[in-house]
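JOB MANIFEST
job_type = single_chain_structure
chain_count = 1
residues = 204
[input]
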Amino acid sequence: FSATRDGMIKKTSATEYRSVLKNGKIAMSLRAGDELQWVKLTSGNDELIFATTDGKSVRFHEREVRPTGRDTMGVKGLTLRKGAQAAGMEIVKADAFVLVVSENGFGKLTPVEQYPSHHRGGQGVYTLDVTPKTGKLVGIGMVEDPSEELMVVSTKGQVIRTDLSEVRVTSRQTQGVIIMRLSDGDTVGQIAGVGTREDVEEEA
């Protein structure tokens, strides 16, 4: 299941990627200026949640997307408001929390049941109250275990790890709390889950 910055999505059988040449294979046809950003391996019976930089999100079932070949453009996953782009896509997990992080270092957790299922292609519902204070939404994650740790990387190379148990659980249309303090001119670039503290210590 593939998704682009301009909100296009596509589902293709994994068997079409069984043999990949040294120079690769086309995974998706793109419109001029668009970028393929997220790829998830789904079961065929999953729901997905797709977020935007202006704080909206759409939850829909993958059955709404007809499988197509690799060299196709796909269909509209969500409707973007003026100036917005897609900011992330995740497979929905039952009883999990939706994590969102903004470019100015704000983050929060919201129970996934607060996100109603809709049809693909709409604007969806609010998932973050985006303001000049928070900056744009830049990342979304699905958290099944609140004892996991989160790694946040800034565009200037600053990295922090934080316990998600310290991130506030709150409703969808809120700003959350500061999880990363940034220097002037710096913004959040990427987020990634790194497992529980015990997992990380064992790997070390």
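[summary]
Helices lie at 197-203.
DSSP finds one helix and 15 strands in the chain.
exit_status = 0
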